[in-house]
Write a structure and sequence with these properties.
There is one protein chain. Helices cover about 35% and strands about 20% of the residues. The radius of gyration is 21 Å and the shape is elongated. The protein is an alpha/beta fold. Helix 6 crosses helix 7. The strands form 3 sheets. Strands 7-8-9-10-11-12-13-14 form an 8-stranded parallel barrel, surrounded by 7 helices. The chain has 2 domains: about 60 residues, Alpha-Beta Plaits, CATH 3.30.70; about 250 residues, Alpha-Beta Barrel (TIM Barrel), CATH 3.20.20.70.
Length: about 325
């Protein structure tokens, strides 16, 4: 449930409510807004009657949260969450672009792509050091060497780095190098891993599972939030359906739906959602029009020679043209790129 405090509630009154909740076995999560302080109470609501809270000084209202996801709910936090990393905001007025190769292959590859995406306006570079592949014989990534190359790229070009973690055993290493920790689609319901990243003070990009419903996706985010990490970014990357022409079915309707249900920022990965480079740009434009807070695009200087996902990668030239068009769409919907 959510406890809405009066606009003039004192710190002592807020603390009294928190103490009352915790003594009843709840976990209390504070959200201080411009006009109101809201306290989210996570626990068994049968153990505490609403009236006991409503009578406390400073309490304006007690609202039950009907959805199974509590902390991710828009009821818990009416204002949208903005994840801030340095001077980059995800969830604010600017639509952020994350771009780069599917996999880190070499320093030369990263430096060339980083220079090209930065000059067109991207602020965040994506690149996989650990690659979860369907086949055990496919390229699995450069592991720690790949992380080191990403760190060198950040130092040289001033780009933030988002990269995937696959295993709790490598989480400390990935967290040491990454600015944003990515949970890939195959690990969306790896609940132990979700709990572990929730204990880190670092933003987490959570991709939607291959066949996950919106509720399951938000419940996965709840695992992270419940461990104390508020900086969760949701990423729609396509789901499996009966359609076989594209790699997946990009569910752009999830963007406005999730933003209605949740306060968390939402970005879109049309590269994985479509799987064919020629259809990625129009879906990137559609993502911005749908209200996405960011777009993640795969970019490779020579897609034909890419070690993975070359078929869905844009060349730097095509990426630059897409950025110009996305900027126009962003402006049309009252945002900027």
């Amino acid at each position: 449930m959510v406890i809405v405090m009066n606009h003039n509630a004192t710190d002592e009154q807020i603390e009294n409510v928190v103490n009352r909740l915790e003594s009843a076995g709840y976990r209390a999560h504070l959200s201080r807004g411009i006009e109101r302080t809201i306290i989210g109470a996570i626990g068994d609501e049968t153990s505490l009657g609403d009236a006991g809270i409503e009578l406390l000084p400073g309490v304006e209202n007690v609202i039950p949260i009907m959805q199974p996801y509590k902390l991710a709910s828009r009821v818990m936090k009416e204002q949208g969450t903005i994840v801030t990393i340095g001077d980059v905001e995800i969830g604010g007025e600017t639509v952020q672009v994350m771009a780069g190769p599917c996999a880190v292959e070499s320093k030369e590859q990263l430096f060339e792509i980083a220079g090209r995406i930065k000059e067109t306006g991207a602020r965040i570079m994506r690149g996989g050091a650990y690659k979860p592949r369907t086949s055990p014989y496919a390229f699995q990534g450069l592991a720690e060497k790949g992380l080191q190359l990403l760190a060198e790229t950040r130092e040289k070009f001033g780009l933030l780095i988002v990269t995937e973690v696959m295993d709790p055993r490598t989480l400390p290493l990935v967290a040491e190098y990454a600015d944003i920790i990515q949970i890939g689609t195959r690990n969306m319901q790896n609940f132990y891993l979700l709990r572990e990243v929730g204990r880190y003070n670092k933003p987490v990009l959570l991709k939607r599972g291959l066949s996950a419903t919106i509720e399951e996706w938000l419940m996965a985010a709840e695992y992270i939030l419940n461990e104390g990490n508020p900086d969760v970014i949701l990423c729609e990357r396509g789901i499996r359906s009966f359609e076989t022409f594209t790699r997946n079915t990009l569910d752009l309707s999830s963007v406005p739906i999730v933003k209605h249900l949740s306060h968390l920022p939402v970005i879109v990965d049309p590269s994985h959602g479509i799987g064919k480079f020629r259809f990625v740009p129009p879906m990137a434009l559609a993502a911005v029009a749908a209200g996405a807070d960011g777009v993640m695009l795969e970019v490779h200087s020579n897609p034909l020679e890419a070690l993975c996902d070359g078929a869905q990668s844009l060349t730097p030239k095509k990426f630059g043209k897409t950025m110009v068009r996305m900027a126009a769409v962003a402006q049309a919907v009252g945002r900027k790129l």
